[in-house]
Amino acid sequence: QVYVGLIADLSYSNPHLSPFDEFQRLKLHPEIRKHLEGGKRVAYGARAITKGGFNCLPKMSFPGGLLLGCDAGTLNGSKIKGSHTAMKSGLLGAEAVFEALKEGKGGEEITSFEDRFKDSWLYKELYAERNFGPAMHKFGNIVGGAIAYFEQNILRGSLPFTFHDTTPDHATLKPADQARKIEYPRPDNKLTFDKLSSVFISNTNHEEDQPVHLKLSDPDLPIRENLPKYNEPAQRYCPAGVYEVVDADDGSGKKFQINAQNCVHCKTCDIKDPAQNITWVTPEGGGGPNYPNM
Ligand code: SF4
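A: This is the predicted complex of the input protein with iron/sulfur cluster.
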């Protein structure tokens, strides 16, 4: 089995960009293609991850639980693979829980996890790499990459200051008429596919009559503001084709359609909508994608 994926920074500025279609395009690269040709697509999924490394670590303990780096992106800002950091955070968590159980503690907050984390090589590694992503975002790939290389290979992560990404992802889009149009090739149905057939193999299921779990604060805003200004980017940033701009049945113009049953619960819309008008809420009855082999 071959697993292939693409992490698209949600701080992108071109509203014509479609992370799903960028991923399809990536599969056509000769170095990726050679591993996929002759194979059969068996699964699909999408998820927003926190990949800001050290600078975006949340509070990691709460009464009755610990937040561990269970996916490669959570505790990993810049390395290509973060499995070792995820595993280490799991080990530290297990040690902290074991210690608490020995002391007879029950459901209270295990704050010693934070101390163990700060004393570990995991903390030092993340701290040393903290400027990698922000430097690239602030100064571009060439200058930012040079700063990151200098810091990590010459200074060994000891730059005396920290760059921060301060612009939220929903505020980075340029107006559509000021951004380069992107034409994506049609799917060949061998290596590249469309959204709907991909969603089908994510085993996404929601009860037919359940309330829509994607809430709009202002239902008219997508057509009134997002469409003229950004060509309604939800049509492209959603990796499951949930949002469509279609002709209204009564001939009154365009309407914003939400195909909530397709939602794979990635939460991109909640993060990237430029007006912050969309809120993803938990669907009824545990509906959503089912990724048995991923
Ligand atoms: S509707 Fe939102 S949460 Fe659901 S798949 Fe699309 S972008 Fe992700």
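Residues 70-81 have pLDDT under 50 and may be disordered. The longest helix spans residues 132-154.
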